[in-house]
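Mods, move this if it's the wrong board.
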Amino acid sequence: MSSSFWQRLDLWSQRLWPATLTLLLMLLGSIPLPLPFWQPISPSFALMSVYYWAIHRPTALPLPLVFAIGILADFFGMAPLGVGTLVLVVVYALTVSQRRLFIGQPFLVVWWGYMMVSAGAMVLAWIATSLLDVTLVDPRPAVFNYLVDLGLYPAVAYLFARAQRWLLSQQA
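Not the wrong board. Structure tokens:
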């Protein structure tokens, strides 16, 4: 086999890395974490990943792929069918449209953006779930999950930044 085949394969693997990472984190986030005296929570790793890559490498995680990951997440029971997909697509579209505000900014600004976007995502998911259930769903688990996500985002973003640096070093 020629070296150009291996170069193309290497290039494809680098392009697929953010999508693969998002998919793996979505699967990890579908495992509920049991908490004493509280219902299990599931960190929104897919949401964190979509937000991060929509800012830093939107071409590596295009909208159709975000849609497919959302559908898959819904099938894993992370939300009523369609709600997770809607949330991920809206977060992606909103973040990509505002990415110029976050490029080159200190981490605290990007984290603040995640706080705002994920709060909107939580409210959107709560409203959509309540409409589909035709009853007001208890918002406390969603708020608690939101707070857990805010606490986890810096560690997840750090890992993404390391992965992105590694990808860029492989291209050089």
